[in-house]
Amino acid sequence: MKAKGSAGTISLIAALCMVVAGAVIVLASVAQAAEPIKVGLTTDLTGIAAAYARSQVNGVRMAIDEYNANGGVLGRQLELLVRDSQLKPALGTSHTRDLITRENVDILVGPDSSAVGLAVSAVAKQYKRVVIMTIPNTPRLPMELFHPYMFTLVPSGLMETRAMAEVLGPKYRTYAFIGGDYEASHQGLKYFKERLAQVNPDAKFVDENWPKLGEPDFTPYITRLLAAKPDMIFSYLWGADLIGFIKQAKPYNLFERTQLATLLFMDDLKALGGEMPNGIIGQMRAPFFAINNPRMDKFVKSYRARYDDYPADWAVMGYEGMQVLAQGMEKAGSTDSDAVVKAIESLTYEGLTGTITFRNEDHQGNVPSFIGRTTDSRQYPFKVLTGVRAVSAEQVWPTMEEIRTARASQ
Amino acid sequence: MLTDILVQVMSGLSRGMVLFIVASGLTLIFGVLRVINFAHGSLYMLAAYLTHSIAMLVGSNDLSFYLALLIAPVAVALLGVVIEVTMMRRISHRPHQYQLILTFALTLLIADGVKMVWGGDYYTVARPSFLEGSFTVFGQPFPSYYGMLIIVGFVIAGGLLWMLTRTRLGKVLDAAVSDGEMVSALGINVPALYTAVFAFGVWLAGLGGVLAAPVGSVSLGMDNSIIIESFAVVIIGGVGNVIGALLGAIIIGVMQSVGIMVAPKMAIAFIFVVLCAVLILRPRGLMGVKA
Fold first, then answer.
1. Does the distance separating the beta carbons of A46 and B215 come in below 8 Å?
2. In A85-134, which ranges are E strands?
């Protein structure tokens, strides 16, 4: 009786255990389903490009909130974790590693600067996490330092300068250069010259200027450029430097005496407002005002409602980058990195700037480069581009041969 | 070619003038208080941001520029008073390192404060309409605004010189530098005098900031670029000497301008070459007096 009783107790306990264990398993799986997909974004919220990073975060966050409002991705909510890498590659490395190992993020959005971009990409490679670049554009990312977990939505410096050469080359013969004295700028001029020689063999450079980054006074360079009398000045200045240059060049009548073709971002158009001269050839990454499709219209409307501002290039591309990641995970049916890589490789993404696919060999999105001339706008409180030509990626991106050579030399 | 060089010299002169205005404040503070004020460039930057804010408030027009000239330097000078009375005065008897650390800490605080208030964006400030264009010099256009800077620079230099050598205040300052206790015994409030000089030096930094704002962009990092050049000016000219500061600023401005024309790749180094030459050949500076 006693033994029987104890056997009964044991089986009862065993049965209870099973029930409890089962409940725990069920609960765990329920919890798993509800657990958010974590998105890690290390970007440079401190330093000269802080404004770009803020726009980027805005864009990414908006995309995430839209997904979450519609039930999330794979039935799970998205959660954004932002870290500030302060333009320091070492911080980019440690933040990204922390995001992956401590916070267990599933997927990453790249930073602001190219140097930090390389650092983040290296960590993503080590821990096998998919990362999408929406601002850094050093050609090294998709070329010699390529790895399969990296995707980029940005026309690389190589593509941008070649696109500029394609547009300018046939029309102008003598060129002068001005650009900050740093690596990307030197590389940019090299790529520009190479393509220019193909497009127009008669073209030649009559002057080169290398002010330091953050130069407050460009007047000596301006007078030098004017003395060289080029048909076209090709600029690799950006941000505060570009604005200083334009403001200081105006009273010298530089824009009447010669012409300027330059990288240009929404931030510059907003900062200069009516002071921006007309007729400057500007190359932008995502000028919302020059792209007409319902997706962009809807985006601009909600962006303005939410942030009381017009979206800069960085916001547009941050938003697109997050959508690419989300669509990749949905297509893969999981957050597993290798599955997501496969999914994005075959994804046709209907983005704000157009339809984008990624080339399998370098994961470069076939994003165009938008080149037009500045002009007054009746619609916006800043100058816009007119006659915008979208130079397709296929026309300027590196050939397989070039990629192989770059990777072999690595 | 010759006219190109002359225009280049003139633009160098205008560049030197903003530098002079800022550096003269720095050298004045050092000459009288013996304080090396690292935060000088930060206060210059603060005035430039205030100029932008004033333009935003009253609308970007001529009035806003005059208002900024009136308000921004005074505002940063008031901040200078607070800094002098609450901080500098407390450590005036301690070794120089304490001042260096304190004023360096201030540069970090002000830079982050500016970022908190104005954000990381860069801004531009319009030039007043009558200085918007350019006039012709040696057959080439030269920006009117730069012409104004050159004139203002010389006026300030003249004013400072007059104040320091021809007025009672100048004599009192001179005396206070050589023997503060004696001057104090003669019934002059020396601490108040120090505060006034500090505030005036900061006012000059503020004036430089307002004048520099419409030239380029108003952005973070303005503080570092001006403070380095200002120190170079002070060292080249001789610490505490206003004429020296004027000479140093003109030399640096013109050297850089003409240097960029002649040897653009080495232009960054010119300022330091001059600095080294002065330190080796004449360590007390061009106009400095032997200690």
1. no
2. 107-109, 131-133
